[in-house]
Design a protein that fits this description.
single chain, 333 residues, Arc Repressor Mutant, subunit A, Endonuclease, Chain A, 3 domains, 8-stranded mixed β-sheet, two-stranded antiparallel ribbon, 13 helices, 10 strands, 56% helix, 13% strand
């Protein structure tokens, strides 16, 4: 409201309070105002609820106390404010109830962005190829099994050589059993000659690929991507995968391109690995799969071990190996 008290309206209000039965003419005479000034002051006081039409027929207007006048004057505005406050509270409640939904959606989106489960083989192969092309510093690859896939070894070799040609560090981790796999040996020779680093360990639990320590791939089925893979960009998980690779790498033995002068040591490691698997009660087929060798070869190793230990059973061989401390270095105790 733009109405503002004027000196005339203040004088008329004071007069009305002290002279209940007043008239405009009387007020004009007593206050020294013109009839027009009294009428204007009267309209202003009515607008401000300081005057009201009198229910007494003997008077035209009654003066109203300032507190009452203010309450009447602001009633509609305060009612509107209260209505708006209720509406704002309702709106706030409705919108804020979506907060859990928003954060759940963001968590789901973050999981989708950070860890993708990709089951389409063509898509995951394309993504791996793109990561290999975009790598700028380091590529880490761990291959389980007793030998690289002969059907894909030429393609794998070309990818590895392209990586090395760009001056990128390439580390490849294989299982000891690949040392007797001619295609894998030939691949290792060419990669080593191009500057790649290759080591072998008794067991590579599953295939790992890490590019620039920023993105990692883990096949859903362990050995290859025929059933899809996880693409991981979450830094903490990529760091964990990298640390897992590094731990195996540090324990590995270089795969040379010439005659292997560590054959006895590697055979000893392979023997301890088989003993460790026997100690856990693993069957021949599982041991063979973990060590990347045929079941027939695995059984031949087991027979030789049992003969050497003079054990009459697999269980006895495992027990004797523990008793003799043959498993301490392998962490099976």
């Amino acid at each position: 409201m733009q109405a503002r008290l004027s000196p005339e309206s203040v004088a008329l209000y004071k007069f009305a309070v002290s002279t209940p039965s007043w008239t405009n003419g009387q007020a004009a005479r007593e206050l020294g105002l013109t009839e027009r000034e009294v009428v204007d002051a009267e309209q202003l006081l009515l607008a401000l609820r300081l005057l009201r039409v009198s229910p007494d027929g003997q008077r035209e207007h009654d003066a109203v106390g300032p507190e009452t006048a203010l309450a009447e004057l602001l009633y509609d505005d305060e009612a509107e404010i209260r209505r708006r406050q209720v509406e704002l509270a309702r709106m706030r409640g409705e919108v804020m109830c979506l907060l859990p939904t928003y954060y759940e959606g963001r968590r789901a989106q973050r999981r989708h962005e950070a860890i993708d489960v990709i089951e389409d083989v063509a898509t995951i192969n394309q993504l791996i190829a793109d990561s290999a092309r975009q790598a700028a510093q380091q590529v880490l690859i761990a291959h389980p099994g007793g030998g690289m896939d002969a059907g894909n070894i030429d393609r794998i070799l070309q990818v590895d050589l392209d990586i090395l040609a760009r001056g990128i560090e390439l580390r490849i981790l294989l299982q000891h059993s690949t040392r007797s796999h001619p295609p894998s040996q030939e691949h290792a020779r060419k990669v080593s000659e191009a500057g790649g680093l290759i080591k072998t360990v008794p067991i590579v639990p599953r295939r790992l690929l890490v590019y620039d320590r920023e993105v990692a791939y883990i096949p859903l089925d362990g050995g290859d991507v025929s059933k899809g893979a996880l693409r991981i960009k979450e830094p903490a998980v990529v760091d964990f995968v990298t640390a897992t690779f590094t731990s195996m790498w540090d324990a590995g033995r270089p795969m040379g391109v010439g005659p292997d002068d560590e054959v006895d040591d590697i055979r000893s490691e392979l023997t301890r690995s088989i003993l460790g698997q026997l100690a856990t009660g693993a069957k021949d087929e599982l041991i063979a799969r973990r060590l990347g060798m045929s079941v027939r070869t695995c059984r031949r190793h087991i027979a030789a071990i049992m003969s050497h230990l003079r054990a009459e059973s697999r269980f006895q061989a495992g027990a004797l190996s523990e008793h003799l401390g043959l498993l301490e270095d392998e962490g099976y105790r």
